[in-house]
What we know:
Elements: E1 2-7, E2 33-34, E3 40-41, E4 46-51, E5 58-71, E6 78-83, E7 88-97, E8 102-112, E9 117-126, E10 136-147, E11 153-158, E12 164-170
Parallel strand pairs: 9-11
Antiparallel strand pairs: 1-4, 2-3, 5-10, 6-7, 7-10, 8-9, 11-12
Amino acid sequence: MDRRTFLGGCGVAATISLAGCGGTGETDENGSTPTDDGSTGVSTSEQTIETTSGTQPQLVGQSIATEETSCGTPDGSATVGFASGDGSVAIEGVIAANNPCHTATLSSVDYDDTSDTLTVVIGVESTNQMCEQCLGQAEYRASLGFIGGLPGRVVVEHGGTNPGAVADVMR
């Protein structure tokens, strides 16, 4: 959070509208406003305004694609890459499924700005097709877009048949 102090009241060059700055519009030749006691003076006020500085990452997009499905027993791992240039986090992995007729899904995506941690849970979804009966695996590639920077930590979890954390990466 960025704190900025703005001095001044209702000046002509003010770019922020402050409450109570309507006044009667009465001013003397010096730009001063009359006061209740008959004297004139320039009214100023000090006000602290909190603004977000944009330094905290904000999640703005997410996608996942299943690259390939097959029979097999994956090792339950994922890799995480950070691309500062385009503000994205890339995750590649292989998740277990009941059979090869499943695709990878983003079950949940959560960014916690307090801990600067992105937690991504990858799941599987049936394609509802006739399928070979074997343990399956789905290779996937996920991309998460950010503005304002990238998260400091990414945790990837696999749901499905073997739930649990498969990657915990610090940037």
